From TrEMBL:
Name this polypeptide is given: Asparaginase
SUPFAM superfamilies per UniProt: Glutaminase/Asparaginase
Entry-linked InterPro entries: AsnASE_II, Asp/glu_Ase-like_sf, Asparaginase/glutaminase-like, Asparaginase/glutaminase_AS1, Asparaginase/glutaminase_AS2, Asparaginase_C, L-asparaginase_C, L-asparaginase_N
Keywords assigned by UniProt, alphabetized: Hydrolase, Signal
Segments forming domain L-asparaginase N-terminal: 8-198
Domain annotation Asparaginase/glutaminase C-terminal: ranges: 221-330
Similarity field: Belongs to the asparaginase 1 family.
Organism: Polaromonas jejuensis
Length: 333
């Protein structure tokens, strides 16, 4: 009876280092990701029963650098179906860290629920000394089981912190303090207790105009990078590939090299949306600063890095819209 009084949390496993295994305890960076099945992960962490009744489901078993739009759609459809069930109180997604921020933002945009959804990974495989996956997963389940987490959008628990899935990004590799947000964490988990300090203000989940139940495929979007001596070769190739939007990961304030400006104008002339982001990890891109966005009919990515801008454009452009409408969406989400 005591057990059934606990919240029910479903753990959807997708792979990554949190399901990784190395040859020895000293292999913290040399190992194979996506090896350990979810049942084995859960069996190794009996303490989860302290905070929730957990059930595991293997959705995929891949390293997250290989995630595709199809992987996102399959995962999102499953999350959407589960949150509609009365006997599910929260969802945890185990995921590789390399594209974790993209999946977390995607779910934040397309799942219409106030139930907690927490995406979690690890920097070291479970076989390594000082492995971080078990505690990160315990923290994730405790947040997914918590009423305080409801309505705060998709969350990420790494390194004792509760982060907004929209804001968080992988800022460093190797080290366990890999996930940061320029706007700060929302809270912390200590010994399974959640401590909250702030909440997101951008539109998400229940307040989102997007719903994964209403579309079957994401819009094709590619990213092209800015750097010294950049040529238009990559941009021209991508412009011919049938995309709906192009993200320009520009230098500085989203600046664009003089010889790239006409290439972006050619892309826009084909009806492809041009979205200016920046390769600088923090800060944000202002409209009509660096480039005359009104004149060129371009969009700015606000504070979204190129990979998050790709997710928002891929979701938004599942509906037909002009650049004004797309810009509104980039301000609001
Ligand atoms: N730490 C990790 O999870 C990295 C791994 N390459 C992945 O994203 O699947």
């Amino acid at each position: 009876a005591a057990q059934s009084a606990k919240p029910n949390v479903v753990i959807l496993a997708t792979g990554g280092t949190i399901a990784g295994a190395g040859a020895s305890a000293l292999n913290s960076a040399t190992y194979a990701a996506a090896k350990v099945p979810v049942d084995k992960l859960l069996a190794g962490l009996p303490e989860l029963a302290n905070v929730a009744n957990v059930k595991g489901e293997q959705v995929s078993q891949i390293a997250s650098e290989s995630f595709t739009n199809d992987n996102l759609m399959k995962l999102g459809k499953r999350v959407s179906a589960l949150v509609k069930q009365a006997d599910v109180d929260g969802i945890v997604v185990t995921h590789g860290t390399d594209t974790l921020e993209e999946t977390a933002y995607f779910l934040n945009l397309v799942i219409r629920t106030s139930k907690p959804i927490v995406v979690v990974g690890s920097m070291r495989p479970g076989t390594a000394l000082s492995a971080d996956g078990a505690l990160n997963l315990y923290d994730a389940v405790s947040v997914a089981a918590s009423k305080d987490a409801a309505g705060k959008g998709v969350l990420v628990t790494m390194n004792d912190e509760i982060q907004s899935g929209r804001d968080v990004t992988k800022k460093t590799n190797i080290k366990t303090e890999a996930f940061k947000s320029q706007w700060g964490p929302l809270g912390m988990v200590v010994e399974g207790n959640n401590y909250w300090f702030r909440a997101p203000v951008k539109r998400h989940t229940l307040q989102s105009e997007f719903n994964i139940d209403e579309f079957e495929a994401l819009a094709p979007v590619e990213i092209v990078y800015g750097y010294g001596n950049v040529s238009r070769t990559a941009l021209d190739a991508v412009g011919k590939s049938g995309i709906k939007a192009l993200i320009h990961g520009g230098t500085g304030n989203g600046s664009v090299a003089d010889r790239i400006v006409p290439a972006l104008q050619d892309v826009r002339a084909k009806g492809i949306q041009v979205i200016r982001s920046s390769r600088v990890p923090d800060g944000f891109v202002l409209r009509n600063a660096e480039q005359p966005d009104d004149k060129y009919d371009w969009v700015v990515a606000h504070d979204l890095n190129p990979q998050k801008a790709r997710i928002l454009a891929a979701v938004a452009l599942t509906k037909p819209m002009d650049s004004k409408e797309l810009q509104r969406i980039f301000w609001q989400y």
